[in-house]
Design brief:
It is built from 21 helices and 2 strands. With 470 residues, the chain is mainly α. Helix 4 (56-70) packs parallel to helix 6 (93-104) and helix 10 (162-177) runs antiparallel to helix 11 (182-193). Helices cover 66% and strands 1% of the residues. A two-stranded antiparallel sheet has the order 1-2. The model is unreliable at 1-17 (pLDDT under 50). The chain has helices spanning 2-14, 22-27, 35-47, 56-70, 73-86, 93-104, 110-117, 127-143, 147-155, 162-177, 182-193, 200-216, 220-229, 240-252, 256-265, 277-289, 293-306, 308-315, 324-330, 334-356, 362-422, and strands at residues 440-441, 457-458. It has a domain at 255-470.
C-alpha cells in the first residue's frame, strides 16, 4: 500500500493538474477567438505560466492570430516566429507558418523571414508551406554563393508552382548580376516570359529582361518587338521607365518621329512626377538631328531649369536625402522601396497602437510599445541604409544627363553661330516651336485612357533638308 501511494504521489508531481486556461477553452472550441477580448488574456497567461504548460504553445498561436487580425502584423510575426523557433507546440507549427507566410506576402522584416524559415526542417512540414520555406532557403543559399545547395533546394520545388517560377527568375537575375552574356540568358528568360504557369509579375519581369538584354545586344529591331510585347496589368497607368526605354530603342532605329511621340506620352499628367532626366536629353538629341536647333536648346535647358536646385545641392555636397526629387526617385523602386514599405507599415501600426492600445490591457499594451519601439528603429535604420545607396545612384543619373545636355547645348550654340554667320542680319524668334497641337493626334475608340499612348503620331519635319533652318 505504501509503495502504491508513493507511485501515485510521483505521478501527481510529474503531471500536475492545471486549471482550465483561456487557451484550453479556445483549443476545445468552448469559446471562439475574439481578438479584442482574448489578446490581453492570452498575453497574461503566457507571461504568468511556465513554458512547459501543455497550452503554452497554443496560447502563443492564438495571441499571434489575435494580433494579426487586429492589424498588428509585425508583433504577430514576432509571436509566430517564437512558436516556430521554440517549438513549444509542434502540432501548432503549420498554423503558425501559414499566418507568418501571409504576413510575409506584404512589407515585412526580411531578416526575421530568413531567421525563421532558413532553419526549418522542410521534410516535416505540410506541402501547403513546404514549398515556400524551401524557396526561401534556396534564395538564402543563392545569395551566399552556395549555388549547388540552392540548386538542390530549387530542384525539389513542385514543377509548375509559383515558387518554382520565382526560383527560376532569381537564378537568372543572379546570372545577370554576375555578368553572364546576353546570348546565354535570353533563351531562359524568353521561356519564363511565356510560361503560363508562372505568376503574372514574374512573367512581366522576364519580359522586361528580354527587352533590355536584346537592347544591350544592339539588336534594336528585336528589342523594339520585345518592348511592344510587354504585358502590363489591366488598368496599370503605365510605366514611364518602360516607355523611355522604348523611345531610346526607336531612336537607335532612326525612328526619330516615333521616339518623339513616346516622349510626348511621357508628358501625360500621370507621369508628371516621374524622375526621367534622360527624357530631356533624348528630346534634345532628336531635335538636333532634325536641325530644330532652338527646340533642341530649350529641351536641354528644360532639364537644367527643372533640376537646378538639386544640381546645385549635389555640387555643394549637401545631404542627398534633403533633396525631395532624389528621395522620391530613390524610394520608387528596388530594395529602398521595400525598406520604405516596411517602415511605413511599422509606423502605421505603431500609430494604431497609440490610438487603441489602451483597450488591450496595460500589460499587452506595454509589451507592444516595446515591440514597436524596436521594430520602428530597425525599420528606419534599414530604410536609411538602402536609401543612401539609392540616392547616390539617382544623383549620378541626374549628373550624367546634365553633362550630356550641356554638350548638346554647346553643339546647338555652334550650329546657331554658323547659321548666323551664313545669314547675317536674319533673326529667328526664340518662341518658334517644332510642333504644335495640330501635329499630335489622339485617336481613341473606347479604350482605357492609356491604351493608345504608344500609338501617338507626330509629324516632325526634317529641317536639315531646308538649308539648316532653325
Amino acid at each position: 500500500m505504501i509503495a502504491l501511494a508513493s507511485i501515485a504521489l510521483v505521478a501527481l508531481t510529474v503531471e500536475p493538474a492545471y486549471p482550465p486556461s483561456v487557451a484550453e477553452r479556445l483549443f476545445k472550441g468552448e469559446e471562439r477567438l475574439d481578438p479584442a477580448e482574448h489578446a490581453g488574456k492570452l498575453y497574461g497567461f503566457i507571461v504568468g505560466t511556465d513554458p512547459t504548460h501543455p497550452m503554452f504553445g497554443r496560447a502563443q498561436l492564438y495571441l499571434a492570430q489575435s494580433l494579426q487580425r487586429l492589424g498588428y502584423t509585425q508583433a504577430a510575426a514576432v509571436w509566430y516566429a517564437r512558436l516556430a523557433t521554440e517549438r513549444s507546440d509542434p502540432e501548432a507549427l503549420p498554423e503558425a507558418l501559414a499566418g507568418l507566410l501571409q504576413i510575409f506576402e506584404g512589407a515585412h522584416d526580411e531578416v526575421l523571414e530568413q531567421q525563421v524559415l532558413g532553419v526549418l526542417d522542410v521534410g516535416s512540414l505540410p506541402k501547403s508551406v513546404a514549398a515556400r520555406v524551401r524557396l526561401t532557403q534556396g534564395l538564402i543559399d543563392l545569395k551566399a554563393g552556395r549555388d549547388a545547395w540552392a540548386k538542390t533546394q530549387f530542384g525539389l520545388l513542385p514543377p509548375g508552382s509559383p515558387e518554382a517560377a520565382l526560383a527560376r527568375h532569381a537564378v537568372l537575375v543572379t546570372r545577370v548580376k554576375r555578368g553572364e552574356s546576353a546570348a546565354k540568358l535570353l533563351p531562359p528568360f524568353k521561356a519564363l516570359a511565356t510560361d503560363a504557369s508562372a505568376p503574372a509579375p514574374v512573367r512581366l519581369e522576364a519580359q522586361l529582361a528580354v527587352a533590355r538584354l536584346t537592347y544591350e545586344s544592339k539588336e534594336f529591331d528585336g528589342a523594339l518587338e520585345a518592348y511592344r510585347a510587354v504585358k502590363l496589368p489591366e488598368l496599370d497607368p503605365g510605366r514611364p521607365a518602360l516607355y523611355l526605354e522604348e523611345a531610346w530603342t526607336k531612336y537607335r532605329l532612326s525612328q526619330n518621329q516615333a521616339a518623339m511621340a513616346v516622349l510626348v506620352t511621357l508628358d501625360a499628367p500621370s507621369f508628371e512626377d516621374a524622375f526621367l532626366p534622360d527624357k530631356y536629353l533624348l528630346k534634345a538629341q532628336i531635335y538636333m538631328e532634325k536641325c530644330h536647333y532652338l527646340p533642341a536648346r530649350r529641351a536641354a535647358r528644360q532639364l537644367l531649369r527643372r533640376f537646378a536646385g538639386t544640381l546645385d545641392a549635389i555640387e555643394a555636397r549637401a545631404p542627398l536625402a534633403e533633396q525631395a526629387v532624389l528621395s522620391k526617385a530613390a524610394l520608387a523602386k528596388g530594395p529602398a522601396q521595400k525598406a520604405q514599405g516596411l517602415f511605413e507599415r511599422v509606423q502605421a501600426e505603431r500609430d494604431q497602437l497609440a490610438r487603441d492600445g489602451a483597450g488591450l490591457g496595460k500589460a499587452l499594451n506595454e509589451h507592444l510599445k516595446a515591440v514597436y519601439g524596436t521594430a520602428y528603429a530597425e525599420a528606419a535604420r534599414s530604410r536609411d541604409a538602402r536609401l543612401d545607396h539609392a540616392l547616390e545612384v539617382e544623383a549620378n543619373r541626374l549628373l550624367d544627363a546634365a553633362e550630356q545636355v550641356r554638350l548638346v547645348e554647346y553643339e546647338v550654340g555652334l550650329k546657331l553661330n554658323a547659321r548666323a554667320a551664313a545669314h547675317e542680319g536674319e533673326l529667328v524668334p526664340e518662341s518658334q516651336d517644332a510642333y504644335g497641337p495640330e501635329d499630335v493626334s489622339y485617336n481613341f475608340s473606347g479604350e482605357y485612357w492609356n491604351d493608345e499612348l504608344r500609338d501617338i503620331r507626330i509629324d516632325l519635319e526634317d529641317r536639315c533638308r531646308e538649308g539648316n533652318k532653325t
